[in-house]
Specification:
489 residues, Uracil/uridine/allantoin_perm, 1% strand, mainly alpha, globular, two-stranded antiparallel ribbon, Putative allantoin permease, Hydantoin permease, membrane, NCS1
Length: 489
Amino acid sequence: MENQELKQRELYRSRGYNDDLLPKTEQQRTWRAINYFTLWMGSVHNVPNYVMVGGFFILGLSTLSIMLAIIVSAFFIAFVMVMNGAAGTRYGVPFAMILRASYGIKGALLPGILRGGIAAIMWFGLQCYAGSLAFLILIGKIWPDFLSLGGDFSILGLNLPGLIAFIIFWAVNVMIGFGGGSVLNKFTAILNPCIYIVFGGMAIWAVNLVGITPILEYIPTGVTQNGNSGFLVLVVINAVVAVWAAPAVSASDFTQNAKDFRQQAIGQTLGLVVAYILFAVAGVCIIAGASIHYGVDTWNVLDIVQRWDSLFASFFAVLVILMTTISTNATGNIIPAGYQIAAIAPTKLTYKNGVMIASIISLLICPWKLMENQDSIYLFLDIIGGMLGPVIGVMLAHYYIVMRGNIDLNVLYTKPGDYKFYEHGFNTTAFVVTVIAVIISLGGKFIPLLEPLSRVSWFVGVIVAFGLYALFKGKTPRASIEKKPAGQN
């Protein structure tokens, strides 16, 4: 078995594929359930997610309804992560290559760049800047004079302390990205106990301050429920799941390291469910409790930490928040970006080249300038998320319905210019289905009649794409798809 894997890798290497994109050997697939259990914790407990909880209160739902909706979301997230990562587990192949099976050798570049290039790089830059703001709080607590360095100096609207904090935090994120999954696993092993201490401790602090009953009865000032409560719960579930649209698409970047399917399935399911139970309870208690205690509705965890008198408590909490941002940036942004950019030119670029290119672009887009107009940013990222839901639907339908869980790696790692079963390397059906699903899921932003669908856009996108692709392609025998000569669709 080992000799066969080595021969296979040598064959694909001779076709111009670098080692980062080759199927992992059995010896390289070492991740067990515990590795996946710890992997996503930091991606759940981060500042944007806690701010999102504050947004849920504006819907007028009860705190208990919000908690239950968040917990239910975890099961949907785990299901998609496990199922869309199954191909990576079985074949040890990264997302950039798995995507080829669904969209074609050339066709995979568009959704791949959308996820690993545009969305990942945008989010990487924005998360680095958001994290640098927390880093400034940390430095300011220790060295207050640092915040006045440089006087009136600014570069494109960023003052000297802000620039220094951003560059340092950006560099740390890049170094974690260079290390890939192995370094990330060690990082999260240290991070996870700290998350339980900080966010669990903050929840206990909030309950002790105001009591559990006021927290459960909390409703922000001037808020009334607008709409059917059952539908609003679904809106909350969709919002939480949609945050994972990008990581779910590229799940194979991490499941390719799994020892077997059972290990990644158990690890990811337990890890996400446990993380979201803590997040649901802690998030609601912290936001509601702090708002009641301080007499001001607040959604940002950093605003709460800044009010603390204890230097040690503030320092430790902000440090852990910084670490969760780094973890989120690595798992959701820079690692997928590195693999995807490498896949654009597999004979010339490596994973580390991809990480460096993505990191430099994230600097050039000046994320601090982009955040000056938050409405346009979130509309842009919301649209990208709405596009990635249909991509997941197509990938799932292709792998489970059309290919029946079997992928021919010799076709996947084809010679340059040698297209086996999609005309000119494009799966036209996949693109047509994706466009239809995107229009239906995001059309409500422009067509009032479709507005309810746009509020649950991720679910609509996945379901419509899965159903249409299964309908159009599912009737075609798998063998005939695999053996079609080049030039046929």
